[in-house]
Specification:
The protein is α+β, with helices and mostly antiparallel strands. Helix content is 28%, strand content 27%. It folds into five domains: 118 residues, C2 domain (Immunoglobulin-like, Sandwich), CATH 2.60.40.150; 122 residues, C2 domain (Immunoglobulin-like), CATH 2.60.40.150; 77 residues, no CATH class; 203 residues, GTPase Activation - p120gap, domain 1 (GTPase Activation - p120GAP, domain 1, Orthogonal Bundle), CATH 1.10.506.10; 143 residues, Pleckstrin-homology domain (PH domain)/Phosphotyrosine-binding domain (PTB) (PH-domain like), CATH 2.30.29. The longest helix has 20 residues. It is globular and about 110 Å long. GO terms for molecular function: GTPase activator activity; phospholipid binding; zinc ion binding. Pfam families: BTK (PF00779), C2 (PF00168), PH (PF00169), RasGAP (PF00616). InterPro entries: C2_dom, C2_domain_sf, PH-like_dom_sf, PH_domain, Ras_GTPase, RASA2_PH, RasGAP_CS, RasGAP_dom.
Length: 755
């Protein structure tokens, strides 16, 4: 997904942001009798909210613990984190913020940092830029005296913020400021746009004394203009309410020469904005932020490096391969693993590479019970591969039962130390047993859904382990269970939000329940794979007692049967009765398909749900669908020009005679929905090659002016038709990341070469 074009021809600049909103502390107490607050945190690109945590109730030191990752599909100036106090009846109160300029993000990469919260006021909340042309002209008056005329041409603005979720009604004031003057003029108001085109010119006279006469080469005397400046203020027209300040710029007149001077200026906050003597009193926020930019060259530039990496599975020994050396030179193997796994997946080389490095691991493994327990290149590559390839597998397997646990939680605490007065531990054990049984049965009955790639890797691991320890009949199972149970299902159960199985980090009680379930599932998974009892794996006596209820042969048999099935290379027939895979859901706005009573189509808030079979929308979440579009009927999914309805973040789903127009809540959400819809529909046979990027209104297409609604599209579709619709990988981007890692670690590489 290209965020913006680079400076060089054919260069793509791709931006992404990942990190974690950890916790806040020492927030300002509520002024009422109850001092506690109900807090949540948002992430904003400039003034556009792109992420929101769950609400943590009744706390002045809320723990959020929420990770985030998204591609950034546009330019931005500032990344901000806002702490809010949730209000039921009034507008949510912004307690404070952390604002980091884009150019400063590199200072905090991958480091957890405590930031002091800064005060929030409207004068400091700005974004966007303005295009100006300035010129000083020489004028000769009737009496022969000379003066200067300042010409200010305000051309346009770009990227002004949304106001109350909608495009603003901007206008600009243009002022010439000095010690004894303040001449101000004003543009016309532009309606419903974040990118207004003003194209208005204003003239200001800078009058000289009558003794100042014409010169052949007119030069501005510096002392006359030293204190003059041009100030542009952007405002949102409030009509019946107060106008909202959007930003300002100041240009000293003394910098202007005889030639015309034009440039884009970033809007700035007011000088008195965001200044407070009580900054330290607002509290602080702990964050981990990592922003990266990838400058991706045309594919032919990566041929040599790519070929070298793809030969890695066949290099003997594999420790001499480019891919293995990449893991060795990087201080943090995680930096190397993600792009490496994605590149190898893209070129169908992941199975032979993981097999080769796993075999290397096994040579150093002396004890059966430590097989694949370390954080080696092999285990990390397999972990990352399972996250990517097994995403849909987890959704179809675990999401329904995790939704039940998180949305209707039953008390499951069985630790005597943590039990509260009045708790019935036997009831808690029954609840926990019910959840464990449900999760366990769901897992062991899911082999039909296990992705083929995972099965192929498990097959290799199983046979490698049996070859390394030929006298242990159980090692073939423990080699597989150490990944599929310990590193895949158990991790997804305890952290469902990191696998996109739940929208937020679970609350403390639910998190504790998930931890107990995960511990039991881990042990059940290894129970069937090893001959000796696993009760010793529990440090807590109460967990040992609870697990004794699972000491039945049927659990061992179920685990071994499941491990046999997922480590088999035999093809699995898809079930005709299989449930559709849930892919994405959320609240957005759709343009009405029919007409209202007054004859105009409007926008309505709806709950959208995308599965592998259909796109539906509902009046509310958990209500029956109002309308559904089968995936097989989707012809294309594309962005919609903002000018069509004067609304940002719009896209269209073309599935028949008329498109469905949808407005997302922010640019990241719009980009994610387009990507998900494109991916799931890309194998449709009747996909369009051209489309209309705007709407058909008042008898013509706004984009090409064609007057017939069924006129063929005027713009090529942006989405191609890749062969693999499940895994969308940009091979050139991953190779660029690997090249960057080698470049950064060149001293280590040269040292290795000299050994």
């Amino acid at each position: 997904m290209a965020a913006e074009d680079g400076d060089g021809e054919g260069v793509r600049v791709l931006q992404n942001l990942r990190g974690k909103i950890c916790e806040a502390k020492n927030l300002v107490p509520y002024s009422g009798p109850n001092k506690m607050r109900d807090c949540f945190c948002t992430i904003n690109l400039d003034q556009e909210e792109v992420f929101r945590t769950q609400v943590v109730e009744k706390s002045l030191s809320p723990f959020f613990g929420e990770e985030f990752y998204f591609e950034i599909p546009r330019t931005f100036q500032c990344l901000s984190f806002y702490i809010y106090d949730k209000s039921v009846l009034q507008r949510d109160l912004r307690i404070g913020k952390v604002a980091i300029k884009k150019e400063d993000l590199c200072k905090y990469t991958s480091k957890e940092t405590w930031f002091l919260l800064q005060p929030v006021d409207s004068n400091s909340e700005v974004q966007g830029k303005v295009h100006l042309e300035l010129k000083l002209n020489e004028l000769i008056t009737d009496n022969g005296s000379v003066c200067q005329q300042l010409v200010v041409h305000i051309k346009e603005c770009h990227g002004l913020p949304l106001v109350n979720g909608q495009n603003c009604d901007p206008y600009a004031t243009v002022s010439l400021m000095g010690p004894s003057r303040n001449d101000q003029k004003k543009t016309k108001v532009k309606k419903k746009t974040s990118n207004p085109q003003f194209n208005e010119t204003f003239y200001f006279e800078v009058t000289r004394s009558s003794s100042y006469t014409k010169k052949s080469q007119f030069q501005v005397e510096e002392e006359d203009i030293e204190k003059l400046e041009v100030r542009i203020d952007l405002w949102n027209n409030g009509n019946l309410v107060q106008d909202v300040f959007l930003g300002e710029i100041k240009v000293p007149v003394k910098v202007l020469g005889n030639d015309s001077f034009q440039a884009w200026y970033l809007l700035q906050p007011r000088e008195n904005g965001n200044k407070s003597s009580k900054t330290d009193d607002l509290g602080s926020l702990r964050l981990n932020v990592r922003y990266t930019e990838d400058y991706v060259l045309p594919s032919e530039y990566y041929v040599s490096l790519r070929n070298l990496l793809l030969k890695s599975p066949n290099v003997q020994p594999v420790s001499a391969s480019a891919a293995y050396i990449l893991g060795e030179v990087c201080r943090d193997k995680c930096d190397a693993v993600l792009p490496l796994v994605r590149l190898l997946l893209h070129h169908h080389k992941i199975v032979p590479f993981v097999t080769a490095v796993a075999e290397l691991d096994l040579k150093d493994t002396q004890e059966v019970n430590t097989i694949f327990r370390g954080n080696t290149l092999a285990t990390r590559c397999l972990d990352e591969m399972m996250k990517i390839v097994g995403k849909h597998y987890l959704k179809v397997t675990l999401k329904p039962v995790l939704d039940e646990i998180c949305e209707s939680p039953k008390p499951c605490e069985i630790d005597p130390i943590k039990l509260k007065e009045g708790d019935n531990v036997e009831v808690h054990k029954e609840n926990l047993r019910y959840y464990v049984d449900k999760v366990f049965n769901t897992i062991v009955q899911s082999s039909i859904s296990c992705p083929t790639l995972m099965c192929d890797v498990f097959y290799s691991l199983r046979h490698l382990a049996a070859k390394r320890f030929p006298n242990d009949p159980h090692v073939q199972y423990s080699a597989v269970s150490s990944f599929v149970f310990l590193r895949f299902f158990a991790v997804a159960v305890v952290s469902p939000h990191t696998f996109h199985l739940r929208p937020h980090h679970p609350d403390a009680q639910t998190s504790r329940t998930l931890t107990l379930i995960s511990k039991t599932i881990q042990t059940l998974g290894s129970w069937g794979s090893l001959s000796k009892s696993k009760l010793s794996s529990f440090k807590e006596t109460f967990m040992c007692e609870f697990f004794k209820t699972f000491q039945e042969e049927k659990f061992t048999e179920a685990v071994q049967k499941f491990l046999d099935e997922v480590s088999s290379t035999e093809s699995k027939e898809p079930s005709g009765l299989s449930e559709p895979v849930h892919l994405k859901e959320g609240e957005m706005y759709k343009r009405a398909q029919g007409r209202t009573r007054i004859g105009k189509k409007n926008f309505k808030k709806r709950w959208f749900c995308l599965t592998s079979r259909e796109l539906t929308y509902h009046k509310q979440q958990d209500k029956e669908p109002i309308y559904n579009i089968p995936i097989k009927n989707i012809l294309t999914v594309e962005k919609l020009e903002e000018s069509a309805f004067n609304r940002k973040n719009m896209f269209q789903v073309i599935y028949g005679e008329k498109p469905l127009y949808i407005q997302a809540n922010n640019c990241v959400e719009a980009s994610e929905w387009i990507e998900a819809l494109c991916r799931v529909s890309r194998c449709n046979q009747r996909r369009l090659s051209v489309y209309h990027p705007s709407a058909f209104l008042n008898g013509n297409w706004l984009c090409c002016k064609a007057t017939t609604e069924n006129t063929k599209g005027c713009t090529p579709c942006t989405a191609g038709v890749p062969a693999d619709i499940q895994i969308e990988i940009d091979g050139d981007r991953e190779t660029e990341r690997i090249y960057s890692l080698f470049a950064i670690n060149m001293p280590k590489l040269q040292k290795m070469e000299g050994i």
